[in-house]
Design a protein that fits this description.
0% strand, mainly alpha, single chain
């Protein structure tokens, strides 16, 4: 009798153990399933955020390209002397992005050529405020000064442009101012530097009225022949 009772207890214990192990395994499987599902959801969320960020960056890049294209349109309008159109075009860019410093530089020089020196300078200064090392804004400030016969200030700003870029037209601008003054040595000095960068500026110098006061000097004529 005792033997049967002991045997029954062993069987019962085995069954209970099996049930316990089964419950434990089932619980472990469920926990693992929850973890896997959670990790999968986190990966999906991460992927969605990544795709959203990529889309956002693409939109930013596209907007930048559109603004660059519109800025270039105003830039080209200025160079064909359509100053009012250039100003209007750059205003569109600035309205879309008030930090687009290149548009202020074009708008500023267009205003100066359109007869408004002070407002033109304000726009160029805004460009330089946003990007102090923007060479084209430095050049345009010099050009505006030269246009309104502030020659000493023009030379200062042409040289400031040359601090950030070796631009032939800044050297040429300095040379033309010295040409007006009849200063042969400095005219030749700076014109030579312009020609080193771009030999084609010789053609401009040949017919440039600014050089009339030095045109009869041999050094000048030797340089542009």
């Amino acid at each position: 009798m005792k033997s049967q009772s002991f045997k029954f207890m062993v069987i019962l214990l085995a069954i209970c153990s099996a049930i316990g192990i089964g419950i434990l395994i089932d619980s472990t499987i469920k926990n693992n399933s929850v973890i896997v599902a959670k990790n999968k959801n986190e990966e999906i969320i991460k992927q969605q955020l990544k795709e959203k960020e990529i889309k956002k960056q693409q939109q930013i890049n596209q907007k930048q390209k559109n603004l660059e294209k519109l800025w270039k349109k105003g830039y080209d309008e200025f160079f064909v002397e359509k100053y009012k159109l250039a100003i209007e075009t750059e205003n569109q860019v600035i309205k879309e992005d008030p930090t687009f410093y290149k548009s202020y530089a074009v708008k500023g020089i267009a205003l100066a050529y359109n007869g408004n020196f002070e407002k033109g300078m304000q726009q160029i200064d805004q460009s330089l405020k946003l990007n102090p090392n923007y060479g084209y804004a430095r050049f345009n400030k010099a050009l505006a000064y030269e246009l309104y016969e502030h020659y000493d200030e023009a030379i200062i700003w042409y040289k400031k442009d040359l601090e950030v870029e070796k631009f032939e037209w800044s050297y040429y601008g300095i040379a033309s101012i010295y040409g007006r003054k009849g200063d042969v040595n400095n005219t030749v000095k700076y014109l030579k530097l312009a020609i080193v960068i771009n030999p084609s500026v010789k053609n401009n110098a040949k017919n440039e009225k600014d050089f009339d006061n030095v045109r009869n000097h041999m050094e000048f004529n030797e340089l542009i022949k």
